[in-house]
Design goal:
The protein has 432 residues and is an alpha+beta fold. It has helices spanning 15-44, 53-67, 76-97, 152-156, 221-224, 226-238, 243-246, 250-284, 295-298, 305-311, 313-327, 372-385, 417-422, and strands at residues 3-12, 120-123, 129-131, 134-140, 144-148, 161-169, 172-181, 198-202, 206-210, 215-217, 287-291, 330-334, 360-362, 369-371, 389-390, 396-397. 40% of the residues lie in helices and 19% in strands.
């Protein structure tokens, strides 16, 4: 079974190319809305429309000269990508009504607005992709050579590109390349420098604390940008949104673009931080243990919700899952009800209560005094090394003949680095 990987790069188009990219995205939006209105009209007349992508493409090829005589200005892939996305949206709606999809109900597709929807289109056929001898450029049909901000050839690493989706977010154009993930085709990674397991305790004050004493600070990107974001949102609220036939003034959309750019910068900083940290963990340790955190429950605390969402624990786990699988590292997810913060890693005493304000753990049994997060990370490492644990997807992993779905992990003496912490050695504080 062929696996795929996404590589996203930022484009640096010229003003002429930027207008052509906007034209392609507008053509895709026009085709999407046109086909959606045709399907709605057929349903209102009591007909049974064929909303497969191939049926939409046949109808478009038959009537495009009369409906859109300007269609030759853009690549045919812009229209085909719109039909593909609409067909998938209608299929999701149909499957949701028939009970074939788990989770929330999927609503009827909505029309794409020029002001609010994300401009995008995709290439699946044709001569698109890398340019030989030009690593920082991509070839886009009808647009030409577009310069990139990164070395795209190094990121793709000789793999075949099967799809390229071009989109515009917060004033910048991006190209998402879907490449085939062949065995051994990924760039060689650095050899692991440590041969012992590690436990990772995620938090708000410090993003990650490892059981060997390594600490990764949390830069709090959203909190640091809160003042600029508040000022931009206040400016946006003062702009008139009832002019221009109810679509808002141009100054309002300039203020809206500024808010979007601030949010995009915060998201980019968060993605860069989590991406580098998870890649380093997967390439450094052979066994990694983390907690199955209840992020939804943590966000119910209105004082910590924005800090928890800014840390993005769910994205941390998602990236760590596929990166450990790609690097051959074993990932263990322990039960979310395991009291890692309340348990003393030396004697096993469990405290009845431990408030969030207590950042130093004091054991009443053996007198241990150490950092709360480091104690939790050691307990997570020990629980992940136990024979009873959870896999990366949160499912139960049991010994043969075990009757209970989830059992209390067996505590074991950690090796090497954890023993140094037990004997009172000062843990290192090493940033990334």
């Amino acid at each position: 079974m062929t696996a795929y990987e996404a590589v996203k790069v930022r484009l640096d188009p010229t003003p002429r190319q930027e207008r052509m990219l906007a034209s392609h995205a507008g053509a895709a939006r026009f085709a999407y809305n046109l086909m959606l209105s045709r399907i709605c009209r057929q349903l209102s007349l009591g007909e049974r429309p064929d909303w497969t992508m191939y049926a939409m493409r046949r109808w478009w090829n038959e009537w495009k000269d009369e409906i859109a005589p300007w269609w030759r200005e853009n690549s045919k892939e812009a229209y085909n990508s719109a039909f593909e996305w609409l067909s998938q949206a209608l299929r999701n709606w149909s499957d949701s009504r028939k009970g074939r999809r788990c989770g929330r109900r999927v609503g009827w597709p909505k029309y794409k607005s020029k002001r609010t929807s994300i401009p995008r289109f995709a290439y699946t056929t044709g001569s698109f992709g890398l340019i030989e001898g030009d690593p920082k450029a991509l070839r886009l049909p009808r647009v030409g050579r577009v310069h990139c901000m990164e070395d795209t050839a190094r990121l793709v690493h000789g793999r075949r590109i099967v799809r390229m989706t071009v989109s515009r977010r917060a004033g910048a154009w991006y190209a998402a390349l879907t490449v085939e993930q062949q065995p051994g085709a990924h760039p060689a990674r650095k050899a692991r420098r440590r041969d012992y397991p590690v436990g990772v305790d995620l938090g708000v004050r410090t993003l990650a604390t490892l059981s060997d004493g390594t600490v990764f600070t949390n830069p709090h990107g959203y909190v640091r940008a809160r003042h600029r974001l508040r000022h931009a949102q206040q400016t946006l609220s003062r702009r008139d949104k009832d002019t221009n036939h109810g679509r808002g003034s141009n100054r309002r959309y300039k203020a809206l673009d500024r808010v979007r750019r601030i949010h995009a910068r915060i998201a980019a900083q968060r993605a860069d931080r989590i991406g580098k940290l998870t890649a380093w963990l997967a390439a450094t340790y052979p066994d990694i243990s983390i907690e199955d955190l209840n992020v939804r429950g943590m966000t119910r605390n209105h004082r910590l919700a924005k800090h928890v969402l800014d840390a993005d624990f769910a994205e941390f786990r998602r990236q760590l899952e596929y990166k450990t699988a790609r690097a051959g590292t074993r990932l263990h997810v322990i039960d979310r009800w395991y009291p890692s913060s309340k348990t003393c890693h030396r004697c096993g005493t469990v405290k009845a209560k431990l408030s969030l304000g207590e950042r130093v753990y004091h054991c009443d049994g053996c007198g241990l005094t150490m950092d709360r997060d480091l104690n939790a990370a050691i307990n997570i490492m020990v629980a992940g090394s136990a024979p009873e644990t959870l896999n990366a997807r949160g499912g139960d992993v049991r010994r043969p003949g075990s009757s209970e779905a989830t059992q209390t992990p067996v505590k074991r003496e950690p090796s090497g680095h954890a023993n140094a912490v037990r004997l009172g050695a000062a843990p290192g504080n090493r940033g990334m």
